[in-house]
């Protein structure tokens, strides 16, 4: 795989490998199905429109259960593992980026992933694990006493709402940055964009 500093066709640089893009697409598709099914279960208007509640419940359960699978398969990719290491490390430039965001200053320093993307990835990973655990307790009712299942339902429902809001924010940010979307779609981004937005990765 080419390093970011090596030229690509059209003066672009490679940001993501094919395997990483497939992991992202598969995770996004499963999450979309899971959230859509949940909406059909909790919103009366959608429930009446869709009907077949038992089928919707099954789709929601299995799409949620399969959510970690793309991540686990992605571990076979060296590029994916390398990016996980980057997402898991905060440096001085990440603290500077967060301060710049809070004070609305320009000139935010960032590596391949900015501090916001690192926080999003960490939060999403934790949320998926909690949703999976609470969902399993709700699915297999014999695994825990009633008090645990009641608590799991409470946590699952409210975290699902928070997850929907944060995902909407994530999509909104992506809509506002066509070059970031192109990087996830094709793996390539413009060199000037990479230098401006992720200067620590591509000086």
Q: Explain this structure to me?
A:
- The two termini are 19 Å apart.
- Strands 1-2 form a two-stranded antiparallel sheet.
- The longest helix has 30 residues, at 146-175.
- The protein is an all-alpha fold and 203 residues long.
- It has helices at residues 18-42, 44-50, 53-65, 68-74, 78-87, 92-103, 115-139, 146-175, 178-186, 191-197; strands at 12-14, 188-190.
- Helix 1 packs across helix 2.
- The protein contains ten helices and two strands.
- The model has no long low-confidence stretch (mean pLDDT 88).
Summarize the helices and strands and which ones pair or pack.
Blueprint: E1 12-14, H1 18-42, H2 44-50, H3 53-65, H4 68-74, H5 78-87, H6 92-103, H7 115-139, H8 146-175, H9 178-186, E2 188-190, H10 191-197
Antiparallel strand pairs: 1-2
Helix pairs in contact: 1-2, 1-3, 1-4, 7-8
Order of helices and strands: EHHHHHHHHHEH
Beta percentage is under 5%
Morphology call: elongated
Output mean pLDDT.
Answer: 88
* Number of E strands: 2
Order of the strands making up the biggest sheet: 1-2
Rg over CA atoms, rounded to whole Å, is 20 Å
Task: Tally the helices.
Answer: 10
Characteristics of this structure?
elongated, 71% helix, 203 residues, mainly alpha, 2 strands, 3% strand
Could you give a short description of this structure?
The protein is mainly α. The chain is 71% helix and 3% strand.
């Amino acid at each position: 795989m080419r390093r970011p500093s090596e030229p690509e066709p059209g003066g672009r640089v490679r940001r993501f490998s094919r395997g990483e893009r497939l992991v992202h697409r598969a995770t996004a598709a499963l999450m979309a199905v899971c959230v859509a099914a949940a909406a059909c279960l909790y919103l009366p208007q959608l429930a009446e429109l869709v009907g077949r509640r038992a089928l919707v419940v099954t789709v929601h359960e299995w799409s949620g259960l399969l959510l970690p699978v793309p991540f686990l398969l992605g571990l076979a990719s060296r590029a994916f593992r390398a990016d996980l290491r980057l997402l898991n490390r905060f440096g001085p430039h990440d603290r500077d980026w967060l301060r710049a965001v809070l004070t609305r200053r320009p000139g935010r320093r960032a590596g391949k992933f900015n501090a916001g993307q690192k926080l999003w990835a960490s939060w999403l990973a934790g949320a998926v694990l909690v949703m999976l655990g609470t969902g399993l307790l709700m699915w297999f009712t014999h695994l825990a006493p009633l008090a645990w299942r009641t608590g799991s339902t409470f946590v699952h429902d409210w975290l699902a709402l928070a997850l929907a809001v944060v995902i909407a924010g994530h999509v909104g940010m992506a809509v506002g940055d066509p070059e970031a979307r192109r990087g996830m779609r094709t793996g390539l981004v413009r060199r000037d964009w990479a230098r401006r937005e992720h200067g620590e990765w591509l000086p």
